[in-house]
Amino acid sequence: MGIAGTQTTPRPDSGKLAGVQAARGIAALMVVVYHATRAISLPQYIGYVPFGNAFGFGHAGVDFFFVLSGFIITYAHAADVGRPDRTPRYLWRRVTRIYPIYWFVTGIEIARALFAPDAAARLAPMHLLNSLLLLPARADPIVGVAWTLKSEMLFYIVFALAIIERRFCKPLLAGTLLLVLAGAAVAPEAPLLRLLVSPFNIEFLMGIAAARWLASHRTARPAAVAALGAVLFLIAGVLELQGIVPLNGLPGRALYGSASVAILLGLVELERGGTLRLGNIGLMFGDSSYCLYLIHLTVVTIAIRIGAHFGVLAAVPAGVAIAMLGALAIGAAVMLHVGVEGPLMRWIRRRTPRLCR
Q1: pLDDT tens digits, the chain, 357 residues: what are they?
Q2: 288-293-299 Cα angle (round to 5)
Q3: b/e code 214-235 from CB counts within 10 Å (16+ = b)
Q4: Which of 191, 201, 280, 307 has its CA 20 to 30 A from that of 19?
Q5: Residues 6 or more apart from 15 whose CB is under 8 A from it?
Q6: Side-chain half-sphere CA neighbours of 292 within 13 A
Q7: Distance, CA of 252 to CA of 225 (rounded, Å)
Q8: Residue 73: which of 165, 204, 196 has the closest Cα?
């Protein structure tokens, strides 16, 4: 997992990879539109899938997230590999990045669950514990989209093993590949085993490969490479919508993951060359992407119910309704980022233990 020469390239934690952050925001927005389209199509609302299910592959924004995670962690922590004294700092940064705002949104969902018909099941002690700690479990977390964070945490733990001992790198890479291939043949029932053999795990490896490549190479024609990646992503979406590529299978992960790698290779090279610049709006959109991902289901669900109650859904075209839902989700995410996540992260940084600095 280690890479050489990272000092010659901008590091994502330095804030220089703003284009990548913006791409993360676009991927989050894809997931928003996907969920909004599915939610609004329920029989109690408009009763059909708008636009012939053209947004049916929007869930693949998650594929980009996983590739990006492998890329960012390797790019930011490559120098830590084989240095066990860096483990506390690495783990502290990962845990404080994921959990605090996630717990805040989970608190909102717990409050909502108090008034739900299935409150007893949703608020069962073990379900709460599994949700709060992102532990493998049969039931989805209280924040539904947080199933992806379980894979994130697994990857962070695996990478921590490489930081502790560099010689673990090759066995960990090989083991991950073998487990993913095994999962394509056998579908285990145990939640932990399902997590270990998930086809999504291969996308972390793709992100690692992209970071290793960029550490010592330049991407020729980066704009064309990024555009090609975007086209391949759309082609993968069409193949999925036509039933050629399975929704959750390894072929889909390989296609979406490969397209995501191309997008990253192009975007990072454009930014390294100084030809890609974002304004304040683009930067804010990217910085709010994690909040957007976490809060959007809550916003979409509440907004659809209110819109149906007051007749808004029946009065406007489906496309307008989806655009309104997306705008509401983005607005809520920006407020959550500015009003909660930002202050919370600054408070945590001021209180970071000396060992973790």
Answers
A1: 333 333 333 443 344 577 888 899 999 999 999 999 999 999 999 999 998 899 999 999 999 999 999 999 999 999 999 999 999 999 999 999 999 999 999 999 999 999 888 888 889 999 999 999 999 999 999 999 999 999 999 999 999 999 999 999 999 999 999 999 999 888 899 999 999 999 999 999 999 999 999 999 999 999 999 999 999 999 999 999 999 888 788 999 999 999 999 999 999 999 888 777 777 788 889 899 999 999 999 999 999 999 999 999 989 999 999 999 999 999 999 999 999 999 999 999 999 998 888
A2: 100
A3: bbeeebeebeebbebbbebbee
A4: 201
A5: none
A6: 30
A7: 20
A8: 204
How far is C-alpha 332 from the geometric centre of its chain's CA atoms?
18
Q: Are 3 and 82 in contact (CB under 8 A)?
A: no
Give start and end residues of each alpha helix (H) in 78-185.
87-113, 119-122, 125-133, 147-164, 169-185
Threshold 0.85, pTM exceeds: yes
What token pair was written down for 307?
């819109």
Question: Sign (positive/negative) of CA torsion 232, 234, 240, 246?
Answer: positive
